[in-house]
Amino acid sequence: MTISVNKNRLLNRIEELSKIGQIGATGVCRLAHSKEDRQAVELVKRWFEEAGLQSRIDAFGNLIGTLRGKNPDAPILMLGSHIDSQPYGGRFDGVIGVLGALETVQTFTERGFVPEMPIQVVAFADEEGCRFNKGLFGVRGILGKLEDGELERTDKNGITRRQALKEFGCSPDDFAVSEYKPGQIGSYLEMHIEQGPVLEAKGEPIGIVTGISGPIWLTVELIGFAGHAGSVPMALRKDALVGAAKIIAGLNELARSEEGAPTVSTVGTLSVFPDSRNIIPEKVVFSVDLRDIDLQRRNRMEEQLYHLIERTASEHGLKYNISVDTKSDPRYCAESIMQTMRECAADMGLRVPELMSGPFHDALELSYVCDYGMIFVRCKDGISHNPAEFADGDDIVLGTELLYRTAMKMASVKSGLKTKQYSSFALAKSEQEGEML
Q1: pLDDT, tens digit (0-9, with 9 covering 90-100), for 296-344
Q2: How far apart are CA 217 and CA 233, in angstroms?
Q3: Confidence at residue 432, expressed as pLDDT on a 0 to 100 scale
Q4: In 3-state terms, what secondary structure has residue 234?
Q5: More confident residue, 133 or 384
Q6: Confidence at 415, pLDDT banded by 50, 70, 90
Q7: Alpha helices in 73-196 (DSSP H)
Q8: Beta bridge partners of 50
Q9: 349: burial class by Cβ within 10 Å (0-12, 13-18, 19+)?
Q10: Taking 70 as the threshold, does the pLDDT of residue 168 lie above it?
Q11: Among the listed residues 356, 407, 33, the one whose alpha carbon sits nearest the alpha carbon of residue 188
């Protein structure tokens, strides 16, 4: 198999970027809009410029690099992912998608390939959502989908997103200037580590994504009444933490209730007030993350969860509030792009498996405005959001090669043709033209 992309350059960049916000030997902490995040963005921006891209940081904190096409008014072919991380994260999550996209476009320029349409490589701001408990910030920003009050959300230190953005060097007053017009983005491609065990179980280095599960993020607040732990009889207590424990255990059973279903649920954060050893907990706030690729099943489980919360609160004399932080339907990849990937993989001598994505990605939001496709790269033991996260360099290179060949075909089709209008003949012809460069 002929590899077009520069393996050493790609892997060296991944290694260099991992030093920013490094924790331990292999971990990374680059929270959105932090000093470490800004340092990482500046480094990748320099690489964008070395590759010949016109680069800028927009009002949302997105890093955008543009390669001009033959038709500057044609809908953009966008590639990317994110470089922010979880507080206890790994060095491959998001990063390989940004640097793989950069390597793809840099290989274009080195080979003298001029795409039919503009190509943009984007490192989206705050995909993770862990700092302000609301993810996909940068991609929602460019699509004009930010919600009321988002800039007043606070992190654990009481810093608002508005303040963090300003410290990062962005101006919320310029949001409108950074938004994309309807139809401006034609297609989107994203490469990402799988963050699950399927590819490893199949013994395959890369896979084609068929769709992204629809996530629901909730914040649940239970309010009881504080009292002395030694003097209030059990029958008279309004213990918010006991109620929370029952709901959390019930949610876990709910997600397991249909054998073989890909439903997953997680309670990842929990705070207790007054948080004292000998005071009955008066207030508990916890997060809920519920996902499924089957919309009807997910909606049914969401309703069952609401009934569980209401029943538990009633049994324990609690009041409750539920806020919906994120709710998205499952989104399926464009068949035309998946077919392009299948053909490119076959040309590489690979027969790649196809699988769904449980985690959400920036592609989830872009799916509402354009066709999208994703490539997964195998990760060891399916571990992610953990310093032990690992993807083999050869696997990353294979994923990047498939990204490169897919983007080459899509960028060779004359502007004005939508992704879903690609014909097998046009794809074959564009591939031949690409090989001649």
Answers
A1: 999 999 999 999 999 999 999 999 999 999 898 899 999 999 999 999 9
A2: 35
A3: 36
A4: helix
A5: 384
A6: low
A7: 95-110, 137-142, 161-168, 175-178
A8: none
A9: exposed
A10: yes
A11: 407
- Residue-wise pLDDT tens digits, 98-139: 999 999 999 999 999 999 999 999 999 999 999 998 999 999
C-alpha to C-alpha distances, 163 to 152, 154, 158, 227, 329, nearest whole angstrom: 9, 9, 10, 37, 31
Q: Which one is predicted more confidently, 174 or 215?
A: 174
Distance of CA 158 to the CA centre of its chain: 25
What span, in angstroms and rounded, lies between the C-alpha atoms of 53 and 78? 13
What distance in Å separates the CA atoms of residue 121 and residue 276, rounded to the nearest whole number?
49
Q: Residue 427 pairs with which residues in a beta bridge? A: none
Angle at alpha carbon of residue 192, lines to 334 and 84, rounded to 5°: 120
As a whole number of angstroms, the distance between CA 368 and CA 24 comes to 39
The pLDDT value recorded for residue 425 is 29
Q: Taking residues 57-81, report their average pLDDT.
A: 97
Annotate 319-341 with b (16+ C-beta within 10 A) or e (fewer): ebeeeebbebebbebbebbbebb
Which range is least confidently modeled, 344-348, 363-367, 417-421?
A: 417-421
DSSP character for 419?
G
In the block, residue with structure tokens 């790994």? 90
Distance between CA atoms of residues 207 and 351, nearest Å: 9
DSSP 8-state assignment for residue 348: T
Average confidence (pLDDT) over 423-433 = 34
Token digits of residue 368: 């509402």
pTM of the model: 0.82
Phi, psi of 283 (to 5 degrees): -140, 135
The two tokens of residue 93 are: 């999550």
> Which parts of 275-392 fold into alpha helices (H)?
295-315, 335-347, 362-366
**Hey, which residues does 289 pair with through a beta bridge?**
217, 266
At residue 326, the pLDDT reads: 85
Residues 6+ apart with CB under 8 A from 163: none
One DSSP character per residue, 166-181 reads HHHT--GGGHHHHPPP
Q: CB neighbours (10 Å) of residue 346?
A: 11
What mean pLDDT comes out for the span 225-234? Answer: 97
> In this structure, are strands 371-377 and 206-212 parallel, antiparallel, or unpaired?
antiparallel
Provide DSSP, 28-55.
E---TTSHHHHHHHHHHHHHHHHTT-EE
